[in-house]
Amino acid sequence: MGAILAIDGVNKRFHGLRAVQDVSFEVAEGAIFAVIGPNGAGKTTLFNMIAGVFAPDAGSIVFAGERIDGLAPDAVCRRGIGRTFQIVRPFAGLSVEDNVMVGALLRRPDRAAARAHARDILARLDLADKRDVAAAALTLPDRKRLEVARALATGPRLLLLDEVMAGLRPTETDRMVAILTELNRTTGLTILLIEHVMRAVMALAHTVLVLHHGARIAEGVPDTVVRDKAVIESYLGSEAPA
Amino acid sequence: MSGVFTGAVRPGAWVFLFIFLAALLVAPFLANDYVLTILILILYFAYVGQAWNIMMGFAGQLSLGHAIYVGLGAYTTAALYVHYGVGPWIGLIAGMAIAVACGALIGFLAFRFGVSGVYFAILTIAFAEFARIGFDHFGWVGASGGYFLPVAQYSHNDVWNLRGKPIMFYYLMLALSMAAFAICALLLRSRMGYFWQAIREDEEAARSLGIDTFRYKMYAVTISAGMTSVAGMFFAFYYNNLFPEQVFHISRSIELILGPIIGGIGTLFGPIVGAVLLTGLAEGLREIMDYFGYDAPGAKQVFYGVCLLVVVLLVPNGVWPPLARALRLTGGERRKTGEGHAGRETGEGRDR
Ligand SMILES: Nc1ncnc2c1ncn2[C@@H]1O[C@H](COP(=O)(O)OP(=O)(O)OP(=O)(O)O)[C@@H](O)[C@H]1O
Ligand SMILES: [Mg+2]
Question: In angstroms, rounded to a whole number, what is the distance separating the alpha carbons of residues B33 and A81?
């Protein structure tokens, strides 16, 4: 299978701080691809460039054969990229179901069809029984799930997940891993995720990219990457498996 | 903070609504001229409140200059009528077009250049002020000296030319406010209504879900402006005189938003409840003061201020959400948004 996403030499500076430096990689269609690295490594910045929050200073981003760097976030979403926010941004005054409805209406203008789709997705993410609750009243793990549900409802071909396991208990992490695996397996959805929870990364990712100070220091299958000397020194430390 | 935008209504509420409507239909036959005047005012404020609510309550864009759209609708229909004998309903097409164009200009300037929140509100005030000063010097429509429609004693009600007795204006305003309610109910449940609410709640998150926020904010401003200009036509033909200092004055813009704020921003019934409370109580207060022989020119403004204070302190989301819950008209804790879920699946009638 070919690459659905090709990042080539992207750079981003914030007032002299090089948040992302010359990062290149490709994500194969149908893959689960993880980006890891210490705090401030530039992971979210990389996501924001893909999602159109800001354009890279240099380099290109090609999605499904089309250059998307510099497009606005809504245009990127309409081309088939869904994203979650590391710091969750639910529509607090709306119910859980209506949060997902907003996403579902993008490609299903008919309200009944959108609602049915929203309910399917809520069921997939174990949120069905909370659909009438105000999003403001959700616990953090549920808000993380809602982020995923809402992005998923837009019908993406590529899903960007920014630390959706953070703050989840191990059983909840395992459940989220199972949900994502299932999604990937049954729908062929490509997933690009940023994650600190190595338990989830090891279970999910086909490929792992490691960022440090904005630059790529390693890329490969999870088992190899976690044994990489540079990765252990800069990020994993004692967490690394023996 | 939940339930802020409650608008979903139980089946029992339809009975309530029906009685309310029936009362409004027969009211002119029971009311004296004075009460009829107040009822007309209430309906007027319910209408403009509803129109303003589309922008602020649905899409989260604060306009503090809505008097400009009333004024443009009023002056355009009046000028076409007086100068060219064009009937108000035809003139309204021009009036709406001008108001919509003005809303589009304000929206374009603000949304294209990322002006939002307080700065957007200030921009809307600025435009209303430009209009006030501009019309003060606009000789074709009387400038600051005022513009007047010919008044005569009418033996019959001429709806086509809006010449007639108060009762005709009452039914006109009733029809308009009912139409506004229906339009708002439809809009809120529509795809666009969802997108507006998403923008209101979190614009960046809305964009990440593929919503062209510029476009939908433009729809909100222009629809709201167009609807508001209809009230301008009513204003011109009901009062028969227009003064820039009154029509475009900021106090007019403020007055128009108090109803929905007190009733409940973003709700369908809020603008109605707010209009009834504010106008009804303010006039009642004046009656009482008259009775006791007091004459305090600023009393109404002070009263509005007190109302606002009470609401902000006690029911910050407006009177309607808690009132609806108290009357058991909405699904209470279960319903959180302005949209009724399809009741069929749950067996609960949760329509509006
Ligand atoms: N909008 C911004 N303006 C200025 N600096 C920024 C901005 N966004 C990120 N940065 C800086 O860029 C660097 C990379 O941040 P980024 O959020 O991409 O890191 P991260 O890898 O996602 O970290 P974490 O694991 O903590 O989420 C940090 O030093 C951060 O302070
Ligand atoms: Mg981050």
Answer: 62
